[in-house]
Amino acid sequence: RSTLDFSNDSLKAAEKGLQRLMSANETLSKISFTEIENDFVAEEDAKVRELCNSTIEFMNDDLNTAMALASLFELATKIFSWQNEQLKISTIKKETFDLVKKTFSDFVNEIFGLKNEKATDDSKMNEVMQLMIALRKEAREKKDFSTSDKIRDELLKAGIQLKDGKEGTTWE
User: Fold this and answer.
1) Is the terminal CB of the chain with fewer CB neighbours within 10 Å at N or C?
2) Rounded to the nearest 10 degrees, what angle do helices 8-30 and 65-83 cross at?
3) Inter-CA distances, 73 with 76, 79, 120, Å
């Protein structure tokens, strides 16, 4: 019903959005729920539930996919904050976490039919990247930061981003 903005910039933005949803979906499958009695926050739990419910309501409202996607992107922000422990996952109930997993997976995989094009057989590439990550880690331990930075920067030039986290370094 509205004008379509079709440009190179909008295609790049759409690609970044797809990568964000795919990354959130993958991250969500790796997160495990841990409940701590004193951390539950009813307000946070209600916000997360509302995001899940609003995604469904938007699709029921004349297939308002733009708003449904907006809700998914807000959920993605929550997922990444749980991963980075900026927000504790124990602030929501287990049932709410299961609702997030189901809603996100159903919408991304089933309803929108989005597929992760980069989820190909990366076994050989993964072996090479694990070697590069180990070499970089070794350089950092020896305080050879110029080599460590060079490895990171050259990989970035090749389109591979290293992400340092609490569980170690991953690549994308």
Assistant:
1) N
2) 50
3) 5, 10, 24
